[in-house]
Design brief:
By secondary structure, the chain is α/β, with parallel strands linked by helices. The chain contains 3 helices and 6 strands.
């Protein structure tokens, strides 16, 4: 489990590798906290699992970005993660690509 990130034109590109769980909270948070960002793109292509802690981390990120669904895009989700997002209604809280 790890995070890969880089900033380009005030957009953070964040790739989650393995699983999005509370185990990587500090690494996840440090990728966006105290940075001047207009947008965050989260790539879940290599993410196989998200637990309740990971969902909470996404909500916390959304709060820090101003609770605007257009500020955060989540892309390349597996079918399992898409179903989880549907159940918890994340499609109404985040921009899904």
């Amino acid at each position: 489990m790890s995070i890969s990130s880089h900033v380009e034109n005030k957009t953070l590109h964040l790739q989650v590798i393995g699983a999005l769980t509370v185990d990587i909270f500090k690494e996840f948070e440090s990728a966006y906290v105290q940075k001047q960002l207009d947008h965050i793109i989260i790539d879940l292509l290599q993410c196989k699992h998200i637990d309740s802690g990971g969902l909470g981390m996404l909500l916390q990120m959304r709060d820090r970005m101003g609770q605007d669904a257009s500020n955060i895009t989540i892309k390349n989700m597996s079918q399992e993660i898409q179903k989880t997002f549907e159940v918890v209604r994340f499609k109404q809280l985040f921009n899904m690509a």
